[in-house]
Design a protein that fits this description.
Blueprint: E1 7-17, E2 22-25, E3 30-33, H1 42-48, E4 56-61, E5 75-79, E6 92-95, E7 105-113, E8 116-120, E9 130-141, H2 144-149, E10 176-177
Parallel strand pairs: 6-10
Antiparallel strand pairs: 1-2, 1-3, 1-9, 4-9, 5-8, 6-7, 7-8
């Protein structure tokens, strides 16, 4: 089966920067619903469109087609007292970027020093050219439910009605508002 609109694609991948420094060695395959559902980067979909199981490729994606350029205006220094304790590097908080009346931004704690905290609203891979080593391992037709929901269900996809919290470690601080 060829990769096309409304197919579920399973891809083994390795993610590196442009200098081939490994960022992520995909221990689990990336499984996504193909066809503009924003389940993966558009350049990956473009590369894989019309391909079949067994297709392999190395694809370099520039920042503007990945996670954008690094925006220094999304860096904030806040008083530590404004944030909940215990506070750790890597925690994430929702807040508004300076002068923005758009969607809230997720800020990541990147540094803690005495009474100040550095928060970065950039994606961790912003400003980086990314190199993906891709290998298609499975292609199947999406179910009507997957198409209606806009994402994959089942193994390595999204689960509805699953009462377990497996894989949610650390998510408890993702929705802390910054006022």
């Amino acid at each position: 089966m060829k990769i096309a609109q409304n197919t579920v694609v399973s891809v083994n991948y390795k993610l590196s920067d442009a200098q081939n420094n490994l960022i992520e060695d995909g221990a689990q395959p990336m499984v996504y619903l193909h066809g503009g559902y924003e389940n993966t980067l558009p350049k990956i979909e473009e590369e894989l469109d019309g391909k079949e199981v067994g297709y392999s490729s190395t694809l370099q994606i520039e920042p503007e087609d990945a996670f954008g350029d690094y925006d220094p205006s999304l860096l904030k220094v806040e008083e530590r007292s404004r944030l909940p304790e215990p506070l750790e590097v890597g925690m994430q908080f929702e807040g508004m970027a300076e002068g923005s009346d758009e969607e809230p931004t997720i800020f990541t704690v990147t540094e803690i020093a005495d009474d100040k905290v550095v928060l970065d609203g950039n994606h961790p891979l912003a400003g980086m050219a990314l190199r993906f080593d891709l290998s298609v391992i499975d292609v199947r037709a999406a179910t009507e439910e997957e198409i209606a929901h806009g994402h994959v269900h089942g193994a390595h996809g999204h689960h509805h009605g699953d009462d377990t919290d497996e894989g949610d470690e650390g998510d408890h601080f993702r929705s802390q508002p910054l006022n």
